Amino acid sequence: MGHEATVIDYLKADVEGSEIPMLTDIINNTPNLLKNVKQIGVEVHLERKLYGEYWKIFQQLECYGFQLWFSEMNPVRKLFFKVKGKIRSCCYEMVWARDRQW
What we know:
By secondary structure, the protein is of the alpha+beta class.
C-alpha cells in the first residue's frame, strides 16, 4: 500500500481471538513493519492454554523496544468471571509504547 516509510502513531488491532497468529506473523516474517510504529493497542482474548504463547509474544515486543504501558479488563460485563473471589475477564485491552528507536 506504499506506507513502508510512514510513521504510525497508534496501531490498533481487534482481531477477535486471532492476536497470536497476527502478532507471530508480524514478528517472525515482517518485523520491519514495527519499525515505524510508536504504539500498539490490542484487545487480547486470553485462554489459559495459550498463556505461554502470549508471554513469548510480549517478550518479543519488548525486544523490539515496546513496553507495556496500559492494560485493563474489557468492560463488557458478560465477559467477566470469578477466580478465587476476584473478578477477571477473558478479554483485556493492552497498549505497548516504544521506548527507543531501532
